[in-house]
Design a protein that fits this description.
The chain has five helices and five strands, in the order αβααβββαβα. It is an alpha+beta fold. α2 crosses α3. The longest helix is centred in the N-terminal third of the chain and has 16 residues. It is globular, with a radius of gyration of 16 Å. It starts with a helix and ends in a 17-residue tail after the last helix.
């Protein structure tokens, strides 16, 4: 067993609940600053995370823990596909603490999501990644997530 395999064995993945509110907020704030140099409004992010934790129709979070300490997270939201008569799960708000990178944290989260999605009859997974975030792109590709032929457009009313 190599070092990576032995570390993966100690990573626990669980669904977040309201007691994880502060952890998820802190992770999102750090992720936005690191990946987009964006400072999130504390009130907005707090209410946004709390809303998801109280309303599973909006989505849910999975947390990865090492020795019962938060190592990372991701959020799942759903998109209905009439073409496929089923849901896609969108992977969002991905964050792994710097001290836990390259230890299999995202790999564990991803595998957990894939297993849950398949068990629940989800038709596929989707995610988006900043075009400059080459390290994240390599991780996703290593896990079999391919760059789609779709382009992503948005109109953000807050900007």
């Amino acid at each position: 067993m190599n070092k990576m395999e032995s570390l993966i064995n100690i990573i626990e993945v669980r669904k977040a609940d309201i007691t994880d509110l502060d952890i998820i907020i802190a992770n999102n704030v750090e992720m936005a600053q690191e990946t987009e140099n964006k400072t999130l409004d504390k009130s907005t992010i707090s209410h946004g995370v709390e809303e998801v934790l109280h309303n599973p129709n909006l989505g849910w979070y999975y947390l990865a823990e090492i020795d019962r300490h938060n190592a990372g997270q991701l959020m799942i939201t759903r998109e209905w596909s009439d073409w496929r008569n089923g849901y896609f799960w969108w992977i969002q708000s991905v964050f792994v603490h710097k001290t836990h990178r390259e230890k299999g944290v995202y790999n564990s989260l991803h595998k957990h999501v894939v297993a849950r999605a398949k068990k629940m009859g989800v038709v596929g997974l989707r995610l988006y990644v900043d075009s400059k975030n080459k390290s994240a792109q390599k991780v996703y590709e290593r896990l079999g997530v391919k760059n789609s032929h779709y382009l992503f457009y948005e109109k953000d009313w807050s900007e």
